[in-house]
Design goal:
Layout: E1 16-20, E2 51-58, E3 61-68, E4 87-93, E5 107-113, E6 125-128, E7 146-153, E8 156-164, E9 178-187, E10 191-194, E11 211-216
């Protein structure tokens, strides 16, 4: 039997959280005040936060906000390297199937970047990424199903991202009000911040490593 003291603290728990409904759906312009803040689970392992992450839901889709501070360099973002660019990546399982280890067509991975979304490279970007080892890939997203915007500060940035319901195969808050979910905030200057599991565990491809979110009114 494994000694619990040898495991990272987050590996000892199955996390479940309530996510509040948005007052109004405006895509990447959704208002996400502090009441939508997600807990910083990496603190269980003594990690300092890289970012504050907020999330809300509506029948029309899901929305996120990320605040990154303490930076002295601009974000590193490359449209050709979405998977390791600075920004937010999210994984969403619209069926919350925590007993499978390979993603299904209900599992989605999206990247939201604070830069790289226009020819000058100054606007926010949003795109879909494949999940490694998936049993079946989610359908490709269509234009305008993902949205992002960002605002630079003197020491960082705020990034807003949204996925419309059409981008989330199987998304049905009334019939399926629970989601599997995790995120990663990547920042080459500040480091990596993850949600339900940390580096060293296959959270990028294994839905059993994701937390459960309950969509509440």
């Amino acid at each position: 039997m494994l000694d619990p003291q040898l495991l990272p603290s987050r590996q000892l728990f199955r996390f479940s959280f309530d996510i509040r409904r948005l007052a109004a759906w405006r895509g990447a312009d959704c208002d996400l005040d502090e009441s939508y803040r997600l807990p910083h689970l990496a603190a269980l392992e003594g990690e300092r936060p890289v970012a504050e992450v907020r999330m809300g839901w509506a029948p029309e889709g899901l929305a996120w906000r990320v605040d990154v501070a303490g930076k002295s360099q601009p974000p590193w973002c490359r449209e050709s390297r979405l998977d390791d660019s600075d920004g937010l990546q999210v994984w969403v399982d619209t069926r919350a199937t925590h007993n499978v280890h390979r993603a299904t067509r209900f599992c989605h991975r999206f990247a939201f970047l604070p830069l790289g979304g226009d020819p000058r490279g100054t606007g926010a970007a949003a795109d879909q990424l494949l999940i490694n080892r998936a049993r079946e890939n989610a359908r490709p997203v269509r234009p305008r199903e993902l949205a992002a915007r960002s605002k630079a500060t003197s020491a960082g940035y705020t990034l807003w991202g949204a996925a419309a319901a059409a981008a989330l195969g199987g998304y049905d808050p009334q019939q399926h009000p629970r989601l599997g979910f995790t995120y990663a905030v990547l920042d080459r200057e500040r480091g990596l911040q993850t949600f339900s599991q940390g580096a060293g565990f296959p959270y990028e491809e294994d839905p059993s490593q994701w937390a459960e979110l309950r969509l509440v009114g």
